[in-house]
C-alpha cells in the first residue's frame, strides 16, 4: 500500500452518471476486490473517496464510478493530464488463493466493476468463470467480461435487454465451487441465502462510508458473527457466513 501522486490518463463517460477514470499505476499493488482512496481536491473536501479496482494493467489503474455527490462529481471533471492522489491498494480482496474449479461472480449495479478484475485474475489461475450481472436499466461493462468468462448472464429490472427481473433468479449455486458477489446488500443477502441452501462457499464485498481507509479510525467497523470488523482492512470482502446468519 502506498500514497502517491498520479496523473489521469483518460476519462470517459459510459452513461449519464457512470464514468471510467484511468490513472497511472506507478508500480502500486492491485488485486481483485481491493480498492484505492482517490483525491483530486485540496480544500473543499478533506476525505479521499474509496473506489474499487475495475481493471489493473501493467502501467494503469481503471476505476468505474457513479457520480453521487461532491467527491465523485469532482472526479468526473478530471481530464487527461490532471493530477490525482491515490492511496492503495487497500483492503482484503477475494480469496483467489483458494479458488479452483468453477466460480460464479454475481454483481449488481456499481458492484459490477470490481468483478471484472476478479474475472481476469481467476481466469489467469485456470478457474472457469461465469458472470451474473444485474442492472437496473441500461447494460454497461459487459463486453469487459467477455474475454474472461465462459458464460455471462445479464438481467435488467426495468430495461429492455437481458432477463427481465433480478439476477439472483438466474443463479444456480450448486453448479459452482464458490460464489463471489458485490452489489446492493439486499442482493448479496439473497445470493448468500441461495449459496447456504446448496452449501456453496460465498464471499461478499461490503460497502461502508470511509474516513481513513487504512484501519486507523474504526469508522467503517461492522458487526459480524466473528466480532467487529473494519470494512477497509479485514474487508471489504468477507465470507458470507459471518455477515448474514441463515
Ligand atoms: C470499498 C469501497 C469500494 C467502492 N467502490 C466503488 C466503485 O467501484 N464505484 C463506485 O461508483 N462507488 C464505489 N464505492 C462508493 C463510493 O465510495 C461512494 O459513492 C463515494 O465515496 C461517494 O462520494 P461523494 O463525495 O461523491 O458522495 P457524498 O457527497 O459523500 O455522498 C453522496 C451520497 O452517497 C452516499 N454514499 C457515500 N459513500 C457511500 C458508500 N461508501 N456506500 C454507500 N453510500 C454512500 C451518501 O450517503 C450520500 O447519500 C465504494 C465504496 C467502498 C467503501
Ligand atoms: S475507514 Fe478508518 S478504519 Fe476503516
Quick rundown:
Helices cover 17% and strands 36% of the residues. The protein has a seven-stranded antiparallel sheet. Strands 11-10-9-8-12-13-16 form a seven-stranded mixed sheet, with helices on both faces. Strands 14-15 form a two-stranded antiparallel sheet. The site of flavin-adenine dinucleotide has 21 residues, from strand 4, strand 6, helix 1 and helix 2.
Question: Could you describe the 3D structure shown?
Answer:
It is a single chain. The protein is α/β, with parallel strands linked by helices and 246 residues long. It contains five helices and 16 strands. It has two domains: 2-90, Beta Barrel (Elongation Factor Tu (Ef-tu), domain 3), CATH 2.40.30; 96-243, Nucleotide-binding domain of ferredoxin-NADP reductase (FNR) module (Rossmann fold), CATH 3.40.50. It has helices at 70-76, 113-124, 142-145, 185-198, 240-243, and strands spanning 2-13, 18-24, 35-39, 49-52, 55-56, 60-66, 83-90, 102-108, 128-135, 151-156, 163-164, 178-182, 202-205, 221-224, 227-230, 237-239. Helix 2 links the parallel strand 8 (102-108) and strand 9 (128-135). It is globular and about 50 Å long. The model has no long low-confidence stretch (mean pLDDT 95). It binds flavin-adenine dinucleotide and FE2/S2 (inorganic) cluster (FES). Flavin-adenine dinucleotide binds at residues 35, 49-52, 64-66, 68-72, 110, 113-114, 207-210, 236.
